[in-house]
Amino acid sequence: MATNTSSNSPTAIPNPTTRYRRTGQRGINTEMLSWLFMRASGLLLVILVFGHLFVNLWLGLGVKGIDFAFVAGKWSSPFWQIWDLMMLWLGLIHGGNGVRTIINDYARGSTSRLVLKGLLYVAVVVTIVLGTLVIFTFDPCPAGAEPSLLPAICEG
Amino acid sequence: MTAVAERNEAPEAKAEEVPSFQVTMRIARFDPDSDKGHRWEDFTVTMHGTDRVLDALHEIKWHLDGSLTFRRSCAHGVCGSDAMRINGRNRLACKTLLKDLNIDKPITVEPIKGLPVEKDLIVDMEPFFDSYREVMPFLVAKGQEPSRERLQSAEQRERFDDTTKCILCAACTSSCPVFWTDGQYFGPAAIVNAHRFIFDSRDDAGEQRLEILNSKEGVWRCRTTFNCSEACPRGIQVTKAIAEVKQAVIRGRV
Ligand code: HEM
Ligand code: SF4
Ligand code: FES
Known about the structure:
Chain A is built from four helices and no strands.
């Protein structure tokens, strides 16, 4: 036995190279992916969020033009559907991952970590699913609805 | 108290020209034999304009309270022994002039954060050195031993010049909020010292070091707060070095 890694004997000197022998964890690693994602999604969010604010609050009538019909009009176009979908997914996954980092920072006990992260993941998934559902199934004038509840654009 | 007497007898005519002033040092004392945690203790001493925080600590230890405990060795910013939190910032006591601090208020002195305090200003540095050792801070060269020096151009040397200046004082690592809450994080100093070899043209273990720092507690823990760069008494661009290591990990090579 050339290697002397056992620590059974208190006098045994461990082979000095063993502590640096790595476990063979190679290539892509989730922490690196998470780090890259935060940068990539952050960059996209700048464009998406400011584009969103510009179109909604500046163009045309500006902030006064926003009403139910305005939103209905935007979502009738696949372009804005995809735009808002990306904003929803990227924003929530980016924000969720950011809050995950913060929970890792502040939650000391493993139970509180588990609970907080559980709540976070549930909230993120529920919001993404509901939001996606709304973007794709949104119908401003559902058939058979009480006419007095419908907006003016549905007439005729 | 002969020491006091000697001091008073020595008439340093020249030294009198240096302005002297009263300064209060508010020091975090920790007694390992009591479980009360640390307590603040004030000492007021007369110091000169040329004196550093370290001199004030000496003044206290030698003339007021011999039980005050702190590390120092070189007293000239070389050995890295006396990093401490002075007025809430990590500095070397031997490189911080009292006149550069606000002496109208007590100057607070605490041990560096994130490492277990042993007594007063002394912390257990072993966890810090453990992560330092893990990045293999020594030259690893493959192949035949050359029959002459391992030559290196000025440009190749320049590549890692900044990170050769580290004195392992732990001011950076103990200023990092990620390290405060996650003691497993390698910390800036270990990454700085990995950088010193990763970008050394004579070294052949760069990839292995990158692999080590690509782990869960490696460079990705860094959140770019710049506390480390601000804390470093050697003026090393610590955050920049960490960013360069991140880049190298992503590219998979040096
Ligand atoms: C507008 C464009 C945005 C950019 C450029 C951006 C960029 C970034 C980057 C690069 C990080 C990683 C910081 C680090 O680990 O060093 C980050 C973290 C974070 N982001 Fe964003 N982000 C943007 C929008 C958002 C939005 C809309 C939200 C909320 C839904 C959000 C929530 C967070 C949170 C909670 C963190 C974690 C903070 C931390 O690590 O301390 N960000 N952001
Ligand atoms: S990088 Fe600077 S602050 Fe950090 S241990 Fe080295 S000398 Fe000290
Ligand atoms: S005592 Fe050596 S660095 Fe301050």
